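Figure 6 in text form: structure in, sequence out.
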């Protein structure tokens, strides 16, 4: 094979690859259109809907998503807080779990008695220097992924207790995801903090790979 022929063969390889790739994309688009129809016409494509519904008459629909979205959605819909309170803020946290405020509406009502079964720590109340290492240990005993809400002025900044006995912010010993202002914060504020945390969980990138220890 002459040098010119060799050049032609080498030049033809990417062209062939691009051509087959474009063909593959076209075939994929055609298959998707066959299965699901165009987005504006899928509601009209009753035969195909019935086909993908395994023969059911009613419209059940099809939901396509990524595994990351599904993992994040499952996690955010079943946050398990640790049963753990430090001061007056804890009373507001308990109210949040009771019937009037009912955090079950947001899937976070299953307070767990052990850090090994929890993925949310709500630091509700002032943190003394004596308590700080205990909080750190509890946090370390929680499995990944885990999140922290700092509830109230005391947990966030020491509040009115600017003295030697209290930690001036729980973020000095553990990382905090959401801060709740106020003294005491209302249960609605804590519910709002949990919804903010849920938004954060939903946006977590590469959750599936991280779950498999690959990311
Ligand atoms: S922020 Fe207010 S209510 Fe909460 S622990 Fe401190 S003093 Fe108590």
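Output sequence:
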């Amino acid at each position: 094979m002459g040098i010119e022929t060799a050049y032609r063969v080498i030049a033809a390889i990417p062209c062939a690859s691009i051509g087959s790739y474009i063909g593959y994309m076209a075939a994929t688009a055609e298959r998707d259109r066959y299965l699901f129809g165009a987005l504006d016409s899928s509601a009209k494509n009753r035969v195909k809907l019935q086909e993908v519904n395994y023969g059911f008459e009613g419209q059940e629909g099809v939901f396509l998503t990524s595994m990351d979205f599904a993992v994040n959605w499952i996690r955010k819909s079943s946050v398990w807080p640790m049963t753990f309170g430090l001061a007056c803020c804890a009373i507001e946290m308990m109210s949040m779990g009771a019937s009037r405020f009912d955090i079950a509406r947001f899937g976070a009502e299953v307070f767990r008695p052990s850090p090994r079964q929890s993925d949310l720590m709500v630091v509700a109340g002032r943190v003394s220097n004596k308590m700080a290492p205990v909080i750190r240990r509890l946090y370390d005993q929680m499995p990944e992924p885990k999140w922290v809400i700092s509830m109230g002025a005391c947990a966030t900044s020491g509040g009115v207790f600017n003295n030697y006995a209290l930690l001036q912010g729980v973020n000095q010993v553990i990382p905090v995801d959401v801060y709740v202002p106020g003294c005491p914060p209302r249960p609605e504020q804590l519910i709002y903090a949990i919804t903010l945390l849920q938004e954060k969980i939903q946006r977590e990138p590469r959750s599936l790979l991280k779950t498999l220890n690959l990311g």
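Caption detail: The pocket of iron/sulfur cluster is lined by residues 87-89, 125-126, 152-154, 159, 183-184 (CB under 6 Å).
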